[in-house]
Amino acid sequence: MKKLLYVLLILFFGMQSIWACSCLNDPLLSERKKIKKEFKQRDVIFTAKVLSIENKESSSPGWDGVRYYYFKKIKMELSHVYKGELQEIEIVETLMSSASCGYHFQVGTKYLVYGTQVRVGGPISTNICTRTRPLEYAKKDIARLKWFLFKNPFKKVKKFRRLKEKAIKRTIRKRYWWHLK
Fold it and tell me: Do residues 79 and 107 make contact, with C-beta atoms less than 8 angstroms apart?
């Protein structure tokens, strides 16, 4: 009985909190709306090739003691930027395992990266909850990003024509109001 009590005490007081990854995706959203939502939420979006991966460790005080974070620093060579101000070679950070939402990059592979940048010039972070993916699986995303980049040029032309027509009608009404009665 005493051994059981000791085991229970050790288990109870020796436990630490564990944080697991949970991505909330709306299954009712279309692919186009998911890409648009991601475009609005992320600070930087770019395509790049992975040059090197370095494992790092960091710690910070928490309410239950010191917490250790294990993450990867990925050095990437940019090929195209869709959103954000970036340098030619950027450092992207992600957590070590997919259980903590870390994304698994491979050296030599090209990726479309959706990232968040806490401060200008600081590291970019990404995870598995974003639409980050290898470039070969991101053709729809890239096509839609180009569409967002140009903000639907046909819609702009139609809107400009409508505004121009309204302005002309307004001018005619002001100048020739007595003829229109």
Answer: no
Q: If you average pLDDT over every residue of the chain, what do you get?
A: 78
Listed ranges 8-22, 67-81, 113-127, 133-147; the one with the highest mean pLDDT: 133-147
Identity of the highest mean pLDDT range in 24-33, 57-66, 155-164? 24-33
pTM exceeds 0.70, yes or no: no
Q: What pLDDT, on a 0 to 100 scale, did the predictor assign at position 119?
A: 75
CB atoms within 10 A of CB 70: 13
Domain of 77?
20-150
Q: List helix spans (H) across 49-152.
A: 139-150
CATH number at residue 130: 2.40.50.120
